[in-house]
Design a protein that fits this description.
single chain, alpha/beta, TIM Barrel, 2 domains, eight-stranded mixed beta sheet, 9 helices
């Protein structure tokens, strides 16, 4: 019987993100764990492994593929109203108890997840980009599992996508290395980072290190990538005012133009005790972000319940520039030059060249690839 691991091991290529060591060992540098992998062993992610001294990495399949509104990622300042062909593989370098994509991210780590190998669909980069074009996508996104551990596959997809004029983005936990960011930069336009907590102790509970994520936010921004940051507000885990102030101040220290999304938790996977995040808690978190000097703060996952915190405003004159409800853009007023039409203030982001082409009142929900 072919197991899921057997099937995945067949869908690999030689990796790029590594440092060769003695006796056939190697150090993987795709994520900040920097795993030392000896022949016959695997990294923490379970999908990058050493085969006779050669690093083998995932390639040539998807475990999830759909067309999403770009606002679902969430990106608020990257081509509003656009469709994003979003693909994912399997595996993660974290083990978050509240993961909402646990079926794909933890499939090789959690023995209780019995994922059929038939769930895996072979595909080429050219096929994926053809799907994007056929479905009217303007952006191609690597998401659902942690894209850093499948960076070689993402780069091969992005190379084809950019040849077709598409933008490319990562939705990531931010556990990157400088080597991985440098490898990705020529093929990547935007990087969304999950800043899960400002407590290193809590980060280690999830399988990461706080400083690595903070460094990724800073380094990705310094490389010229468009960066947005998301914090899922989990009651009793990361929602104290002190911690939220720490997060907001750090983001502002990198750039006050980085959008900060504070989003609502719902019980999932192994974290079922905390209650869902209230709209009031999101409002309080957003107030902190604004008081810390961030120009663009958004509240997510509770459409219609957070007032104007779904909308984009000019930081200079407070003109409403983008009106949203959930993942739907209701109104768009940023000029072709990326400025406020009222005062001329430059609005940070990646905007459509023709504002008239922005889709208003679109689908607002994911849809299957045609």
């Amino acid at each position: 019987m072919v197991t899921l691991a057997d099937r995945l091991d067949q869908l690999t290529r030689q990796g790029d993100l590594l440092q060769p060591l003695e006796n056939g060992a190697l150090r993987c540098v795709a994520c900040a764990h920097r795993c030392l992998i000896k022949p016959g062993r695997r990294g923490i992610c379970k999908v990058r492994f050493n085969q006779d001294g050669e690093l083998r990495v995932p390639w040539g399949y998807v475990a999830a593929l759909q067309v999403d509104p770009i606002e679902k990622k969430p990106f608020a300042h990257l081509m509003p109203g656009a469709e994003a062909l979003t693909f994912g593989m399997l595996g993660c370098d974290f083990h978050c108890d509240y993961c909402q994509n646990w079926l794909t991210s933890q499939a090789l780590r959690d023995p209780q997840i019995d994922l059929d190998p038939a769930y895996i669909h072979r595909v080429s980069p050219e096929n994926l980009v053809a799907h994007a074009l056929r479905n009217g996508a303007q952006v191609v996104v690597s998401s659902y599992n942690e894209p850093l551990i499948t960076a070689e596959w993402a780069v091969d997809v992005f190379k084809v996508a950019r040849q077709q004029g598409l933008l490319c983005a990562f939705v990531s936990n931010g556990n990157a290395t400088p080597e991985a960011l440098a490898y990705l930069r020529p093929h990547l336009d935007a990087y969304k980072v999950d800043l899960k907590t400002m407590q290193d102790r809590q980060y280690r509970r999830l399988g990461g290190v706080l400083q690595h994520v903070l460094d990724t936010i800073k380094n990705a921004h310094a490389l010229g990538l468009w960066v947005e940051v998301v914090t899922l507000i989990v009651p009793g885990f990361n929602d104290s005012p002190e911690e939220l102030w720490d997060a907001a101040r750090y983001i502002a220290s990198v750039s006050k133009d980085i959008p900060w999304h504070v989003t609502a938790f719902h019980p999932d996977y192994k974290m079922t005790d905390p209650p869902p995040t209230s709209a009031r808690s999101l409002q309080q978190a957003a107030d902190i972000g604004q008081e810390a000097g961030l120009h663009y703060v958004y509240a997510g996952n509770l459409p219609g319940r957070v007032g104007s915190l779904e909308d984009t405003f000019c930081p200079q004159c407070s003109e409403r520039l983008i009106a949203r409800r959930g993942y739907v853009v209701m109104d768009y007023r940023i000029t072709a030059e990326g400025t406020c039409p009222r005062c001329g203030q430059k609005i940070a982001g990646v905007w459509p060249q023709d504002p008239n082409q922005v889709r208003l009142n679109g689908f607002g929900y994911p849809r299957r690839v045609r």
